[in-house]
Predict the 3D structure of the following.
Amino acid sequence: MTIRAAPPAQPREDLAPRVVPLADQVFAYLQPDGGWMLNNMGFVIGSTGVISVDATCTEARTRRYLATIGRHTDRPVRTVVNTHHHADHTFGNHLFAGATIIGHERARTNMLEAGTIAAELPGWEHVDFGEIEIAPPTLTYTDRVTLWSDDLRCDVRYVGRISHTPDDSIVWLPEHRILFSGDLLFNGGTPFVLMGSIRGILETFDDLDALGAATIVPGHGPVGGPDLVDRNRRYLRFVQAAAADAKAEGLTPLAAARRLDLGEWSRLLDPERIVGNLHRAYLELDRDVPLGSPLDLRTVHAEMVAYNGGEALRCRA
């Protein structure tokens, strides 16, 4: 299907994607400013082909990414790793002609179930998604799988629990201590766990610390170091504490969000995500509710728009 915006948003020059060299033949591809739908990717060039970490959410942006890879090598993208099923990381999968798409087995299931709902939610700024064809992983795994780019080991690992989503994977390059974290981590943007688990992702952060990464490519925002883990941890503990206080007072998540002083976190992009995060934190205060239990996306999305003063959510994709 094709989803066109009217009028289509024109990318601003200061939001042009950037390629950041990380190691020999290893690159991060950053889409500033890292807000809604502006995710990061990465690519590893080998003698026979390229491994890509994720796609983008629009036809035009994925084609731009592929053209950028083409300026670095004439070798084809043979493998795409989806760090999780969300649209901003997967809608462009179908444009990697002939590539094997790898993801956790739950990522395939969740991608097929979600379909194009991310593009159909009301309250976005105009986004020209272009042609969307759901192309789920064709090679799935349950725990981990190792890819090789010549002699460079690239470990793709399921994190082992519900975190940002039920199907998060990381890509770990141990030789260079480089971590592609997907949306487990944000840099400069508000972390988001509406479709995951705060308790689960906090446990996953401990595992990320144990890796000893020197360089981290987050799902959104600039490349960072190991301090990214603690910043995301502190924000989500702030959300947990706020939820406990507000629920005890009988406030709804939206009312709690409107009253809450975000303090140091007010400088993060997309602050309206506090509404979705509080919904998740409220649910987890009931220990009888299984982690990751679904919430109504349309209702929460509408409440984020309400928190935003009724204005469409800022999306530069």
Remarks:
- Residues 227-248 form the longest helix (22 residues).
